[in-house]
Amino acid sequence: MGNSQRYFYGKTDKLKSRKIIDLIFSKGKSFSNFPFRVIWMPVANNAVLQTGIAVSSRNFKKAVDRNRIKRLMREAYRLQKNELAESLISHKITLAVFILYIGKEMPAYDVVFEKFTKIISRLIKITDAAIEESV
RNA sequence: UCUAUCAGCCGACCAUCGUUCCGCUUGCUUGCAGGCGGAGAGGAAAGUCCGGACAGCAAAGGGCAGCAUACCGGUUAACAGCCGGCGUUGGGUACCAGGUUCGCCGGGUGUACCAACAGAGACAGUGCCACAGAAAAUUACUUCCGAUGCCCCAAGGGCAGGUAAAGUUGAAAACGUGAGGUAAGAGCUCACGAUGUUUGCUGGUGACAGCAUUCAUGGGUAAACCUUAUGCGCUGUAAUGCCACGUAAAUCCUGGUUUGGACGAAUUCUGUUUGUCCAAAGUAAGCGGCCCGUUUACUAUUCCCGAUUUCGGGAUCCCGGGAAGGGUAGGCAGCAAGAUUGCAACAGUAAUGUUGCAGCCAGAUAAAUGAUGGUCGUUCCGCGAAAGCGGGAUUACAGAAUCCGGCUUAUGGCUGAUAGAUUUU
RNA sequence: UGGGUUAUGGUGUAAAGGCAGCACAACAGAUUUUGAUUCUGUUUGUCUAGGUUCGAAUCCUAGUAACCCAA
Fold first, then answer.
1. Edge-to-edge order in the sheet of strand A49-55
2. Nucleotides in chain C near protein beta carbons (<7 Å)
3. pTM score, two decimals?
4. Domain limits at A114?
């Protein structure tokens, strides 16, 4: 790492393991910031921060719309997640996060971007608090 | 200009950041990070409605059941697709005769036009056809008649009986019109016509068409059962094979024979024990429904009880089958060169096929192909005589998931070709 | 990805091809000083589009929506 000016969201940064996803959904903690719902949990893993993204096919029947929303979410996350990663590195924990879109209408990119800034700052706050508790 | 059909295309470039795969390269922690280069959604990728390829079920046999298809010929790997033809129905148009209130009306025939057709069989059989109506398929309500027979008997009437021409109903009513015939009637007979059937001839590969002939005329429904013909074994790439990790080598249920023959061995030697092979029966499993047929297996240690050569019952071990349950959620192959794409020539009415040349064209797996800005192009709105200026949009339907051939459904705009209609010259 | 089932008033559910019912709900009226209960009446429907048939909720074809299963 150390090159924090660059904004990657590659293969290793994505949460792909079925095992961890099942674990996170059954035992992880969550909060909502409409139209998003965030599920997170500290997990022992090789990567510092892994994030998954999903849109319900119940709310969006067409694959085109689901892909569109996921692309917007990925873009917003990619540009803002470095702050969170740095905080995690300084605290020396690894985190798994899963973000769901629970709205029922197509979002605009500006709204998604603003919501993600709030989500990221809240995640940083929460992890700091958790570390202090455990210490 | 509009409509229909067919074919083609859906913005271009630059900058910044990013994404999946491949190749080269640098670094080391040997599978990760950086750099450079290349490739990266569709006509329907969709629905999953058909047909195949491919894989597994040992091999994929026969019959029944089940499912699908249904005019003919061609095409194809195959198809319920496609192409060409045949027939039926409807429309249009032309002609013919008729009626007319001169506006037109209904009928018949032909056709090189257009459209639709689940377009085999209702003369193999069974079922069904509400309400209405006499009657919905061997029937008779109102009628008509009562020649024949019987009764009252002058006329005439009644009954038995005959009849289905006329009437009403209905979606559908027992070939149509005319004449003969009769007691009244009836294809009962005849003429013309309609429809079907038998046989023959001609043309056509064939569906079929034309002509002659024979017999008939009792509706509809097979997207009711069914009959005939043809085809189909079942399951699907999350199939399947391999590697790694891990669990349960646990639990429950069930099966693990009999007879005969040949050859050999042992022995207490004409009887026992045992090995191999063959045959028959039996049991189990497979050929995913059933039957036939067929294939494979029937290898087993020790102990206890009854009985005491044989045998019966039970437990344990081993093997086969099944049930429920436990574990894994990682990787590789399948998996991207093919019924392939483009162009040309040839064969064919066409669908399509053959040959030649050139090309390699997505491969993800919580699932890549994106975001921002600018210029140009396209288009919309407003102002304006115009040049132009300002603002907006950059699009419809829609996102690969094993791969192909079709079908169906959703779809905005632009370009070209063909056909038709209208207007102007 | 592959396979299957269903669709009938606002809700739950019946109906051999022949008048589309039942219960609850809603609304109105009666009873009651008022409300509840009870009684009477009314409204609202075969998922959509074609086809077969004289006639379709039912049969056939295509579509739409909802649900379920395999791992």
1. A29-33, A36-42, A95-101, A49-55
2. 65-67
3. 0.78
4. 12-124
pLDDT in tens, chain A (135 residues): 333 457 788 878 888 777 788 788 777 888 888 788 888 888 777 677 888 888 887 778 788 888 888 888 888 888 888 888 888 888 878 888 888 888 777 888 888 888 888 888 888 888 888 777 664
Give a yes or no: residue A131 inside a domain.
no
* Whole-number distance in Å between A86 CA and B83 C1': 70
Q: Determine the Cα angle at A117 with ends A116 and A120, to 5°.
A: 80
Q: How far apart are CA A116 and CA A4, in angstroms?
A: 18
